[in-house]
Protein: MFS transporter
Amino acid sequence: MHSDTDGDRHNRASRLRDVPAVVKLLLASMALFNVGFYLVVPYLAVHLSDTLGFSAAMVGIVLGLRTFSQQGMFFLGGSIGDRLGRRPVILCGISIRIIGFVILTVADASAAVVLGVLLIGFAAALFAPAVESANAEFGRELEQSGVMRRTELFGWEQMSSRLGTVIGPVLGAVLLMFPFAVSAAAAALLFAGLWVCFYLLFPARDATAATVALPEVWTTVAKNRAFMMFAALCSMQFVALAQVYLMLPEHLDRTVGSQSALGWFYGGAAVLVIAGQRPMLRAANRIGRRTAIVGGLTLMAMSFVIPAVPFAFGNPTAVVSYLVLSGWLAVLYLGQMLMVPTMRDALAVLARERHLGAHFGMLNTIGGTLALGAGAGTGLLYDHAASAAAPWLATAAVTAVAALLLWYWSRTNDPWLPRPG
Structure:
């Protein structure tokens, strides 16, 4: 068995070595994007509440605005990438994110902080769909040439992203001893380096650039009813994940009295994804698309029940809080690992492999719009609900309803059919 495992690892490494240099750049950039992101954003709630004195509801609104400016604008950003080409859009997006971090470095008023947060989010709405759609197209080419399945490349993508969420929170936790501006400045410098890498290494390669008008792209996406329904239901995974940045620090603050463990939780969740993504992808391939996607979303819904249980027996101790939060994040990210690579492949199939920036962007736009309302709603529950379990149970219920609707809708729809070849 040992030799088989070594052989599997060697084959996987060989396949990764066979991918073009531009794919390696994309995978590396996903790790570095998240290093910069997690240097700042997970600790933004602490900065808003402790330094600026925002209420939980206001923190939820600001975090929701960040998610909306990013995920909510993905459709526009992805469409622009389809129209103008990926390279200029990626470079522009990184530039805007640098400006956003610079604003956070010097901002001492709430309005300036909100502006910086919005710019950081909108920047990602430009470069992230371009990177994701490029990876999807390269993945199709790699699959057609027999190098690796596209879902496997998506698995590497998830692992690369999570590598950044290991390094970023650890660096952010170290930088917590310094003012928040230091973390923001470090993130700005990192993205400046990324801009140089993309300027030098990313090719001007996009056959659709400058040939398709934006209204035609938008019409193509909007008229794809099967895609729109699928994207709307799957977008709940974004909503569930967005709650981590409000609910984790809020729960720690209310039950432990300190948010000092934030970095450890973010880093631990990322390590779980790095170690578990490939086994979960193999499980998804065995059980099939429908079960993997719906089952993953169901696991995500169930995870939110875990932290709610101790409140039935009184206020949890610090040890119990650490344990239930660990269980919550583990089940939440196991569900995401099971769902996301297969979901992204199904999205590309439903999009008929055309205008992938806009199609992937639409998924994120729906999710970001819903996350804006969910962030405000969760914050209001924290401020006003009689039970401390209410935010957890409400999130679990909404996510479970989406999973049930997805299971029902998927019984008669195309993304679950076997792909040719």
